[in-house]
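Slide 14.
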Amino acid sequence: FLSVLLLSLFSPLAVVFADETKKEQPLPFYVQPVLPENQLDSSVGYFYLPSTPNNRQEVAISIENRSKKKQVYQVDVLPGATNKNGVLSFTTVGFQAKQPNISTLVKPKQDKVTIPAGKKKRVTLVVDSPKKSFSGILLGGVKVSQAPSRSKEKKGMRVKNNLDYMIGFVLAGDEESPLYSIEKPKLVEVSAKSRG
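Slide 15: predicted structure.
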């Protein structure tokens, strides 16, 4: 009995392989920015533009419908800020800032876009810089999501996934405004007394 058990544990017939014949399903759509000539850093995959007072500029994003059906996409611009936990958040809920809200400065020409199956379409965004110059940066994002279908809901419990793309959008008040800065680190002594 022991020899049969050992043989079955070390037998090459017990090796199991995953099915490698199935292909990964591609994402149903893909979004990328079309970076303009005045992009401050062309090595990044988001908009990083200078802001000149009273300037109007048009930029674009490209949306590719990778599904086998015609789809409708919703395009929104949301302000960005760090939340209480220090995490970057793109939302209009509870947004308070001393600077102008980027969603009032950057607007899509079309907020809903219909794209045939397997095709791409460019969506134009109009960027109106603030009337007054500002110091620092304005942060936001262009959110593209698949518009919900109006199909009849079936009874029972279902899980429905929604996919959103967010492309960062930065307006720099001056070209010297860094996106991030690292201050000189400081050592701080922390002591704790144990109670016991």
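Speaker note: DSSP finds two helices and ten strands in the chain.
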